[in-house]
């Protein structure tokens, strides 16, 4: 693959592959963007109008053109890749089963619709569902326009307990795992039934067009790259985690070539030892949160735990934290995400090479 803004594409992919294989590299890998920040552009939306926000989200031509404008003239340094991921929000897999999404400016959220057993009959996966067709159209348009410019990834997929929490509300799910576990297991069966087939559908479609496996984190694989997660587990004990989520997690990671587990905050951290014990998980993404959970320096013990387990770790750093972080840490297994202006990125790479 050759990309205008990424002339060292193949070399960068080789470095990512070495990182997945836990090989020692000359410097840490680096993506010059925060993990939850898309490429942005100051260009105007003048001349564009939609009857509502939902229509704007579903306007595939606009979404892809907006992304193209955001990367125009850009140079992607280090292990930063221009990736367009078809996106209707983080709950789209749950919405494939017949529930509704509401759309805001920068995200969407789900209308919780499962209150009792009878509601489970309405959770039916359907490829004619408007959200599934919307992702299909976004993917089609992106593949038509990507050649020589950007990679096309697959949409953000969340199955298992996070999908169940989307359907019935996290607070209700906390009650159900204790008082109505069979209802939870019934919903889990529905959530899990189509998850891997849906993943494979996107993987096969993208591979047929010469794409690698990549999604919102922007880390590609020539095999199957997955970001397993269970944000709901921030609300559960280790016992509940193992009873209700562990079987699904093991099934998912065994299906994939590469797995980066998304540890979203201190609540999920209580399950880290179990996650680190799975050999199919090559890396952890540590998301420390905001407010009192900043700065990163208070979480060095977490990063060192992951390194000691022989796993890679994806870490967000503020530019001002780089020097203290370098002084306190070893570089092994690190994939740093740093928001930095393009003109100073080569100097940051040089600094990392001296680490």
Estimate the mean pLDDT confidence: 94
Shape: globular
By CATH, the topology is: TIM Barrel
Unreliable spans are: none
Radius of gyration: 20 Å
Order of secondary-structure elements: HEHHEHEEHEHHHHEHEHHEHEHEH
- What is the number of strand segments? 10
Q: What is the helical fraction, as a range of percent?
A: 40-55%
**What is the tally of helical segments?**
15
Overall domain count: 1
Largest sheet: 6 strands, parallel
Question: Which CATH C-level class is it?
Answer: Alpha Beta
Distance between the termini: 30 Å
Strand order of the largest sheet: 1-10-9-8-7-6
At CATH's second level, what is the architecture? Alpha-Beta Barrel
Structural class from helices and strands? alpha/beta
Percentage of β-strand residues: 5-15%
Describe it for me?
This protein has 355 residues and is an alpha/beta fold. The protein has a single domain (9-38, 49-353), classed as TIM Barrel (Alpha-Beta Barrel). Helix content is 41%, strand content 11%. The strands form three sheets. The chain has a six-stranded parallel β-sheet with strand order 1-10-9-8-7-6, sandwiched between helices. A two-stranded parallel ribbon has the order 2-5. It has a two-stranded antiparallel sheet with strand order 3-4. A hairpin with a 4-residue loop joins β3 and β4. α3 packs across α5, α6 crosses α7 and α6 packs across α8 (181-193). The radius of gyration is 20 Å and the shape is globular. The two termini are 30 Å apart. The model has no long low-confidence stretch (mean pLDDT 94).
